[in-house]
Amino acid sequence: MKYEAAFFDLDGTLVDSVYDLYIAMNLTLTELAFPIVSQRLVETWVGNGIETLVKRGLSGDMQISEQLDEQLAKRAINLFYGHYEQQVGEYSVLYQHVETGLAALRSTPKALITNKARRFTEKLLDKLALTEHFDVIVCGDGMAKKPSAEPLLFACKQLNVPASQAVMIGDSKSDILAAHAANIDVIAVNYGYNQGEKLSDYNPQYLCDTFLDIIPVLTQR
């Protein structure tokens, strides 16, 4: 095979989890007497970790307000954690063909690399019966978040695979930039949470429309 290991993003790549995040966001905003936001907006804000997501919710915009009070943001983040703890996995679903695709890659060493905190990641993976598919799980509260190269290089070390023999699969600019920074090839998928970005602009090695489209790439010799 061309690649010895595959690294997967979680939200927007394997799992459509936006409705859980949307509910937790609006419960938080309501508790703070802030205007609620649409599911579509929440979807465009996902991808840079919960702290950033909540700050975007408080700002009502992708661009975090320079006037946002840090104490308010901390309070909102803590409230969000509580609400999301109750919601995580309740309405999340696997994208089409994810189960089939991961089963086809059973013999390929795999890492999950997400900006989501570990306590939410593990709960979500367990609820959707995904945990057993991954040899390594790297979360956003353990080290620098994507687009940093750090979590990808950590996964390489854990799996004892050189960067040149790994490939990252993700749905966002952060995934692509992290892979480029780590000198790892990247497959971008078009169906997830791309924050309104045209992923081809960031020069991924591959661009796929469905999860099954990645299988020929990963199994080529």
Summarize the structure in short.
Helix content is 41%, strand content 13%.
Explain the overall architecture.
This protein has 221 residues and is α/β, with parallel strands linked by helices. It folds into two domains: 5-16 and 92-219, HAD superfamily/HAD-like (Rossmann fold, 3-Layer(aba) Sandwich), CATH 3.40.50.1000; 18-87, DNA polymerase, domain 1 (Orthogonal Bundle). 41% of the residues lie in helices and 13% in strands. The chain has helices at 18-31, 39-45, 50-59, 70-87, 98-104, 118-127, 150-159, 173-181, 214-219, and strands spanning 5-8, 15-16, 93-94, 110-113, 136-138, 166-170, 185-189, 206-208. The strands form two sheets. It has a six-stranded parallel sheet with strand order 5-4-1-6-7-8. A two-stranded antiparallel sheet has the order 2-3. Strand 4 (110-113), helix 6 and strand 5 form a beta-alpha-beta unit. Helix 1 (18-31) crosses helix 4 (70-87) and helix 3 (50-59) packs across helix 4. The longest helix is centred in the middle third of the chain and has 18 residues, at 70-87. It is globular, with a radius of gyration of 17 Å. The mean pLDDT is 95.
List its traits.
single chain; 221 residues; alpha/beta; Rossmann fold; DNA polymerase, domain 1; 2 domains; 6-stranded parallel sheet; 8 strands
